[in-house]
Amino acid sequence: MNNTFGLLQITAMLGLYANNTCTQNELSVTASIISMTVGIFSNSLALFILVKSYNRIRIKSKASFLLFASSLVVTDLLGHLINGSLVLFVYSSHKKWEMFDPHRIVCSIFGACMVFFGLSPLFLGSAMAVERCIGVTRPIFHSTAIASHHMKRLLGLTWLLAALVAVFPLVLWRPYKVQSSRSWCFFYMEEPKDWLDVLLPLLFSMLGLLALLLSIVCNTLTSCTLLQARLRRKHHCRGTSYHIEMICQLLVIMLVSCVCWGPLLIHVILLSTRAKNEPASFSLLMVVRMATWNQILDPWVYILLRKAVLRKMFMLFHSCWSPKFHHLNRWQRSMLRSSMETSNSGVGLSDCRCLGRLPPSDTAIKPIA
């Protein structure tokens, strides 16, 4: 009787565990599908906006920035398509890697894509920051010595560097490993065999952190230079308007990259340099999911942080939050108009229409022709 009761308890526990596992898998698949769909839509919309701006803009520095921005959006779009498709394939195969990937070919491709599409946005963001820093701090050198083919070569070098880091483990016969959640592949984080298994994730994290640090330094220098120039009135508003727009976009991209990728890069360093061979915690999957939001938030920077959108948002905010100011200003204009009509009977209707644009002065008011 006791054995029967024990068997029933074990069966119930196994059934509950299976139900929880199925529920977690369904939630993970749903989250992956939503993330993939939103990422593809966002990047496609941002790419359409950037290509349209690239074809319209004839300013050299703006064109270089839009080239890098479009490349960043294309990279994020391909990352969502390829990595998202691989995740859905793994879940559709019920995570049975031994059956559908006995030779670890899919795992190697999955791990290489994770590294490539992870480092590429960081490298492109740092390259955009360096290009803007040179364009603002050394405008003559940027306009004379840096041509469009130089920008395209730099773009190719950033992709090449990310690709070399991604295939480096395969060249050294250190293939990527299925992680503990069995839904993705990455470096050997749980059971490093030798110093190469420690060096490879450290190389990935250090390069990513260096790219973030370079972006922070260059964007800080560029922002300080633009602020100084604007305070000293060395540039006209028209000449610095697109600079300020690009700097705002770069600062938000840098902030998003630091928030999304910083925890993963630091977590990988901590796991690689731990003293004991302890298993990697499940939080690694959480910081990886957090890093994937970088590819979702990046395109919305170019969608929202545009001059036209910012101008409309400012006007909407100004109209919503300062109605009293508008009423006061309208009341002052009406009072000024009525006083002018009573004091100066010779002023015509056309002159009164221009009084709203008169500069404030304590002296006699003159009508604008």
What is the mean predicted local confidence, pLDDT? 76
Structure class: mainly alpha
Q: How far from one another are the termini?
A: 107 Å
Give the name of the CATH architecture of the largest domain. Answer: Up-down Bundle
Order of helices and strands: HHHHHHEEHHHHHH
How many separate structural domains?
2
The low-confidence runs, each spanning 5 or more residues with pLDDT under 50, are 2-21, 339-369
Description:
It comes from Collichthys lucidus (Big head croaker). It is a multi-pass membrane protein. The protein contains twelve helices and two strands, in the order ααααααββαααααα. The protein has a two-stranded antiparallel ribbon with strand order 1-2. The chain folds into two domains: 11-317, Rhopdopsin 7-helix transmembrane proteins, CATH 1.20.1070.10; 324-369, no CATH class. The model is unreliable at 2-21 and 339-369 (pLDDT under 50). The radius of gyration is 29 Å and the shape is globular. Helix 4 packs across helix 5 (139-145) and helix 8 packs antiparallel against helix 9. The protein has helices at residues 2-56, 60-92, 97-100, 105-137, 139-145, 148-171, 195-232, 237-272, 283-304, 307-321, 323-343, 349-352; strands at 177-178, 185-186. By secondary structure, the protein is an all-alpha fold.
